[in-house]
Amino acid sequence: MKRQKKIALINDFSGFGRCSLMVSVPVISAMKVQCCALPTAVLSNHTGYEDFFFDDYTDKMQGYYEKWEKLGLAFDGIYTGFLGSARQVAIVKDFIARFASEDTVIIVDPVMGDNGIRYATINEEFCTEMRRLLPGAAIITPNLTEACLLAGTEYRETGADIGGLTKLAEGLGELGAENIVITGITDGSDICDFIYTADRESVLLRQPCGGEAHAGTGDVFSSIIAADAVNGVDIVASVKKAASFVGRAIKLSHEMNIPTQDGVCFEELLGELAE
């Protein structure tokens, strides 16, 4: 009998703005994988807006998943997104230790910064803890800023420099990550994604930029990667799918005049993922 796969999603819940769990749950569900959410925080809307409600869930996380453990739940995948502190990273490490088996696929989206700048909550202690999540990670999906923070190297715009990207990815591989996907690399009028596979092959994918960058596109991208990973899809094919989907969503959002902070109107395209 066919068995449905399950993914534990560890991320924040932002009620408005199309990011985090509000993106991951519908995208992964459309790809026929059951979603089991463990929130790291609850927000009225993401922090890109001028004002927001924020409820830190750090003190509640362990009690939350201990009930899952008592129920004997098991997961085919564990996908981590935004973590608000070094303490939350340690909690996620404990979650993985309790719930991951040899067959569980770990996907880490290390949300730490962009455009060469750390997010306000990210300090050196956080970076150190995040590096400890990489051993055992089947896939990590940092942008260029996050890849540099994890590798402990100075940020610089590399463009489509395969040699430089390979060297950067090698450092992340030495920290224990299997497949490294460095996302959202700007190269002229193109957006590129660089893949350093578990077999240590370098692959650069590019496509024309479809419009201004929108909030939450990384969550859409990584959610597609996570669902494909538990379904055994090849990493290069998965990245091609995710990049194409995000590109179309950005283009459509531009045509529909969706404000960039409101995220991309991926809902219009979900049927494609279901197919």
Could you explain how this protein is built, in words?
The chain is α/β, with parallel strands linked by helices. The chain has one domain (6-260): Ribokinase (UDP-N-acetylmuramoyl-L-alanine:D-glutamate ligase). 39% of the residues lie in helices and 21% in strands. The chain has helices spanning 21-30, 58-70, 86-99, 124-131, 144-151, 162-174, 217-230, 235-255, 270-274; strands at residues 6-14, 34-43, 54-56, 77-80, 105-108, 113-114, 117-118, 139-140, 179-187, 190-196, 202-208. It has a nine-stranded mixed sheet, with helices on both faces. A two-stranded antiparallel ribbon has the order 6-7. Helix 3 (86-99) runs parallel beside helix 4 (124-131) and helix 7 runs antiparallel to helix 8. The longest helix is centred in the C-terminal third of the chain and has 21 residues, at 235-255.
